[in-house]
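Something for you to look into today, if you have time. I want to see for myself how the chain folds. Leave the record below and I will have a look.
***
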Amino acid sequence: MNKIISKEHFSEKVFKLVIEAPLIAKSRKAGHFVIVRVGEKGERMPLTIAAADPKAGTITLVVQEVGLSSTRLCELNEGDYITDVVGPLGQATHIENFGTVVCAGGGVGVAPMLPIVQALKAAGNRVITVLAGRSKELIILEKEMRESSDEVIIMTDDGSYGRKGLVTEGVEEVIKREKVDKCFAIGPAIMMKFVCLLTKKYGIPTEVSLNTIMVDGTGMCGACRITIGGKTKFVCVDGPEFDGHQVDFDEMLKRMGAFKAIEREELHKLDECEATKTIDENGRTAPWREELRKAIKAKDRANIERCKMNELDPEYRSHSRKEEVNQGLTKEQAVTEAQRCLDCANPGCMTGCPVGIDIPRFIKNIERGEILEAAKTLKETSALPAVCGRVCPQEKQCESKCIHLKMGKEAVAIGHLERFAADYERESGQISVPEIGEKNGIKVAVIGSGPAGLSFAGDMAKYGYDVTVFEALHEIGGVLKYGIPEFRLPNKIVDVEIENLAKMGVTFIKDCIVGKTIGVEQLEEEGFKGIFVASGAGLPNFMNIPGENSINIMSSNEYLTRVNLMDAASPDSDTPVAFGKNVAVIGGGNTAMDSVRTAKRLGAERAMIIYRRSEEEMPARLEEVKHAKEEGIEFLTLHNPIEYLADEQGRVKQVVLQKMELGEPDASGRRSPVPIQGATETIDIDLAIVSVGVSPNPIVPSSIKGLELGRKGTITVNDQMQSSIPTIYAGGDIVRGGATVILAMGDGRRAAAAMNEQLSSK
């Protein structure tokens, strides 16, 4: 897969690459594009598919060396492999018999125009194609275009071939001599802008194909947003083709130049132990448990003070992007904390755990020094104990049900102990694998490798199923990788958890978008008897206020994906990122905290949280707020952005804030913020990160015929996580709209139990 079958030089800097990609070739339609990545530190780069051969299993890309990433791709030769090729993405071109159609292609834009011309001709249109380039050497695919066009007009800037002049001159010539019913334009943004200005004058509907800045390409990050008819759209999921008369090309051109300076700098640099499978089934009445309870009186246990997690110094850590803030417990601390647990006959803590961990048993194993047994206990029901021990809001779940709270004491530090046990096992080298049931030969598919998908995969593997996880990105882990910074959740921790699932027999397939690269129908044809959708809710929300599409205003998804997944802040990464000195993060959740603390670590002199409610209403974990304050983060609560102001280059320079006060509680129980009339404040910023929630990613749900969806695009499920289609289950953000890691994992476990019951009864 992804092997370069052939490479052809069109000109000095333009190449045609034929790439082995059978799934993409089979699914591709005119207008679709792919995301390509070269090297483990490479940038994700969108490229339109110029042609596809389903029989040969290949796709054709035409690439021009214009930046670092395209240069790296063009340096590859026949026989080399491209690190990642994912697609097909975007909406297919709408084709019908319009009548007479003018197709204007400029430079490498001629390549994606070719399949459109072929489709238009096949639909019965009269097709007149205008090819344009600076010189004869830059006119590509002329022969192929002539085969599918009624007429081909060639324009060159220097007059070295065809006629001397711009593409607009060739288009206008046709318009003046005959009736034109439709126009398609693909090429540099400035070319498309002027073609659209021309056709608008003559009232000719015009479609353009936009190639904007992208990071993920699946609608998750929001980097590709543009303004269409006054509304924000995302090129990767809503496009790439739009009504050219509605596109704000000036804004688009500014946004496309956001990282040019960084690109130039980068181009300059370019030039220079055996697992055990036994599970401790000992319950509360086991002799060792009874002996432990008798060893210390309950009153004495309750009087032990809760341990404090060891942390890096705030000043030091605020400049360290990859060092974990929380340093974990020592063994002595963990054993002491475990002694606080009363081993209740009816443990309330377990009722607060979405995945049903036997909390007293794993804690009591720590108390008696059997740490590996504690880790195995965790793995009986949790696929990601080291992750959950770090990022789960235990204070709102298991710890909130601890009996110590009823006694006026602090809850047992269940999360700290979970992390300790998982880390101890990993560092010991004696990593256990949960007991696996006898293989039943039944194939099940998981769409998405976030917490819900991984949890489902782990449980189904235990049941004996042949589990395959399909991930759209080039790394397994979903939000655990792209969304959570390493100072909270190191990638190495996630990787070990994933490796453990692989040891259990779970197969992982990256760079595969179900609904684009492969369809649910195809999965069923390939023998998958059950499908679990855990594709997440990665479509970022914006506030839709004036100036929000200015340069250096991005979603938290985009910002964190660039920094976390693509390692953009590292000097050896091809992916750029904006380094702001005065950074405003809009929102009050955990993602907002992750973003503002990341900005601080990337050199921000002033990093601010702007939140429309008071601190008491903030949904972020208390620990996150505490850590942020210790690191020097400013909190502007009861403030709400109403406008961004940009400089002459289109870069944000200020944000206008509306001061708020709290009114009556809303449906969620939090007091609603109310504007204070006439009270505004304008502050200087050079980077804004919007973290005001996400919406469900539409790619998977929209591709499944007959699937019932909720009002906001979520998948509708019953109590067993089963959708309106009996063989399809779903969980996590795609169902909830937004969920914690542990709630998503709980959905995965519930779905696995229900699907297993369904499939095993047949």
